[in-house]
Amino acid sequence: MARDTSLDGIHFMLPTPFDPDGEVNPAPFQRLLDCAVEAGCAGVVTLGVMGEAHRLSDNERRQVMDSVISAADGRLKTVVGISSQSGRDVALRAKEASSAGASAVMASPPRMAKPNDAAVAAYYFAIQDADDISLVVQDLPEQTGVHMSPDFIARLNTELPSAKHLKLEDPPTPQKVSRVLAATGGNMSVFGGLGGAFLFEELRRGAAGTMTGFAYPEVLVAIQRRFTNGDIEGARAIFYRWLPLIRYENSAGISLSIRKHLMARRGLLDTADVRPPTPAVGPDTLEELDDLLGALDLETGSL
């Protein structure tokens, strides 16, 4: 089985915009999608952890999904998060996303008191049985408590025709990229995440790209393009130049709020509001962010 390269590249993980009253505000999705297109992204991902999908009602999820697919207008791939605590529910969400026109779906395992391979496999088989839409398996043990071994991931890739892609967020990610590619015989496309903090190392290990919400997706695109074209030193130089901001934006627990503030500054969002109990950052953090941006004097036009 040859590796599916259809999603290769950088995917912009989208936040869910809210208005000051806490309601979903779909208007900024057009700006977010335009940014992804102009940046040269391969696609976008909606209704992931960054999209606060676990804080949305089913009706809000549908509103977000439909808004993103409409704003994409066929210009790039659209991956829809469908993660659930129920195999039946995740299967229904897969069918719904497929009917709406999504390019692929992404699912992390359900949280379980006693995680085991049989239960996790059954969950993913339920998706395959419901619809043959391309599946991105999300390896996210920090959130799910489920640790998937490279051999188990290879089993999914072998036994489920739709399981062609992996979003890998199980640190240390570069090392696991190598182990997964070895276990799957290179037949699975592996994407990084975690804010792009190890993008350069992941690319060196054979990653197909990344799916993350760094507020400057054009930077990640520039890194991968240089790397893919053989300009390893150029890719490394851009990565290390932007790494301080990547690191700070990826601060555990408050990364989403920081990203939304950066996107609001860029005019991509109307507000930086998050939905409680997602934590919002305070003025001290914003002062630190101002200091960092001032010290780095970063300009995307010079990439």
Helix content: 40-55%
**Largest sheet report:** 8 strands, parallel, barrel
Which stretches of 5+ consecutive residues score pLDDT under 50?
none
Specify the number of helices. Answer: 12
How many domains make up the 3D coordinates?
A: 1
Strands, count: 8
Succession of helices and strands: EHEHEHEHEHHEHEHEHHHH
Cα end-to-end separation: 37 Å
Q: For this structure, what is the CATH homologous superfamily? A: Aldolase class I
CATH C-level label = Alpha Beta
Q: Structural class given helices, strands, pairing? A: alpha/beta
User: Roughly how many Å is the radius of gyration?
Assistant: 18 Å
Oligomer: single chain
Briefly characterize the structure:
This protein has 303 residues and is an alpha/beta fold. 46% of the residues lie in helices and 13% in strands. The mean pLDDT is 96.
Q: How would you describe this structure to a colleague?
A:
By secondary structure, the protein is α/β, with parallel strands linked by helices. It has one domain (9-241): Alpha-Beta Barrel (TIM Barrel). Helices cover 46% and strands 13% of the residues. It contains twelve helices and eight strands. The chain has helices at 29-39, 58-72, 87-100, 117-130, 141-144, 150-159, 173-183, 199-204, 217-228, 232-249, 255-265, 283-296; strands spanning 9-13, 43-46, 77-81, 104-107, 134-139, 163-168, 189-192, 209-212. The protein has an eight-stranded parallel β-barrel, surrounded by seven helices. α8 links the parallel β7 and β8 (209-212). α10 (232-249) runs antiparallel to α12 (283-296). The chain is globular and about 50 Å long. The mean pLDDT is 96.
